[in-house]
Design goal:
- The protein is mainly alpha-helical.
- It has 1 helix and no strands.
Length: 108
């Protein structure tokens, strides 16, 4: 059972890798084929070209064009209100007498 599972995993992984790499291999082999594509330099008058269907490169679309136009970002400067959290004991120093009596043993 484990051997069949390993064979199936190997087969499907080989199938996936070949499906991913076949377009790149065809594009790479296209450079070594002795045919050439004719570029049109006639831009003045309207005309039609004979299509070239025997080229394997035209069967795959290799580059995906993503037109990303970011929205215009406007920055606004926010002014935070300055709140002073006043602590009532902040202004007291160690040497000031407090408004409550100190705790300790009663004096006689």
């Amino acid at each position: 059972m484990k051997e069949i599972k390993h064979i199936l995993v190997g087969f499907f992984s080989l199938l996936l890798i070949s499906a991913i790499l076949i377009p790149s291999a065809l594009k790479f082999s296209h450079f070594f084929i002795a045919h050439s594509h004719v570029e049109c330099n006639e831009h003045v008058k309207t005309h039609f070209h004979q299509s070239d269907f025997e080229c394997k490169l035209f069967k795959f679309h290799h580059t995906h064009q993503i037109n990303f136009t970011p929205e215009e970002i406007t920055f606004t400067i926010l002014t935070l209100p300055s709140e002073q959290n006043f602590n009532h004991y902040f202004h007291l120093s160690e040497y000031q007498t407090l408004h409550f009596s100190l705790r300790g043993p009663p004096t006689a």
